[in-house]
Amino acid sequence: MIVDSLENVKHYRNLNERIKKAFEFLEEIDFESIEPGKYNVDGDLIFAIVSEYNTKEHEDARPEAHERYLDIQYIVKGEEFMGYVPLEDQEVMTPYNVEKDVIFYHAEVSPVKISEGMFALFYPGDIHAPSMKIETSKPVKKVVVKVAV
C-alpha cells in the first residue's frame, strides 16, 4: 500500500510503465467535470471507474483484495477512511470471483484518512476496505484506476 498526494506522483511514476500511464491519466483529466462511469485508458490493461457516493459505516465496508489488478484510488472531492491490513493469515469470507477480480475477507482493517487530492495504491494482496465514513457520512467523488499486473 502506498498513500500520498497526487502532487508527489513523481516518486511513483517509474514503478512500471502501466503505473506511469495510470498516473498520467489522473494528472491530465479534470475529474470534477467528468461523469461517473467506466473510462478506457489502455484496454483491459488500464481502465478507470469514476464514482460518486456517500461514505458508509465501518462495519459495512467489506475488506477485499485483487489478484489481476492493482487499484489506485484517488479522491477528487470529499474524504474517507480506507482500511488496510496485510493479507497474511486472514480468513476468506467470499472466495475469489475471477470475473470481478475480487476476494472478500473477514479482517480487521486499520483506517487511513484519504482526503481530496490524495491517492492510495493497493497492490494485489493488499486487503483494503474503502469508502468508510469519517465521523459522519458525507459525499465523495472518487476515481479508481485498475492496472493489470
UniProtKB/TrEMBL annotation:
Single GO cellular component term: cytosol
Top-rank taxon: Bacteria
InterPro entries found in the cross-reference section: NanQ/TabA/YiaL, NanQ/TabA/YiaL_sf
Residue spans crossing the bilayer: none
Name under which the protein is recorded: Toxin-antitoxin biofilm protein TabA
Species assigned in the record: Saccharicrinis fermentans DSM 9555 = JCM 21142
